[in-house]
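Input:
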Amino acid sequence: SQTIHQWPATLVQPVGSPLSLECTVEGTSNPNLYWYRQAAGRGLQLLFYSVGIGQISSEVPQNLSASRPQDRQFILSSKKLLLSDSGFYLCAWNNGANYGYTFGSGTRLTVV
Amino acid sequence: TQLLEQSPQFLSIQEGENLTVYCNSSSVFSSLQWYRQEPGEGPVLLVTVVTGGEVKKLKRLTFQFGDARKDSSLHITAAQTGDTGLYLCAGEVTGAGSYQLTFGKGTKLSVIP
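Output:
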């Protein structure tokens, strides 16, 4: 069966520090991968998506970047965090239209 | 940019009552998905509706896709405390080999015993 792992679950970082959040998927190959950010208990905003290794598309201009070094690994990064980067970050995957997304359990990032 | 409007934003009801949540857009979607999210967790897929006018039932939950594939509703019969959570609708568009979802802001449901 397919599983998705996302870590860490919570993270407190000072302003100006770097960031690296990792997401890995097991039990499937060539998934579409997504990074979303969710404001306090509300809707999700798509940040990045990837249809293959090394292929990254950005949806909004921001202080973050994403990379896909392996087929089932998706990484969200920042060189210098801003206060506005605080939020709940979710990784997700799917394998085709109409199949729905499977989400990871999320990372709560607080920038102080 | 596709926008999905969900209503109501907040809903507090007594156990045993019925409720309906709405999801509306001016855009046409290839599918409409509903998710339920618990605090501190990722959303979990409840259902995907694809065909205009489609109705799907999941125990006490009934999902309907509008004929024009622009809107959807979620009806819960005889709500239980376990139904409490954030309900998100999401419209899917296809392009460039990916299947991107646009999410509504959600309906926060509280079922009071």
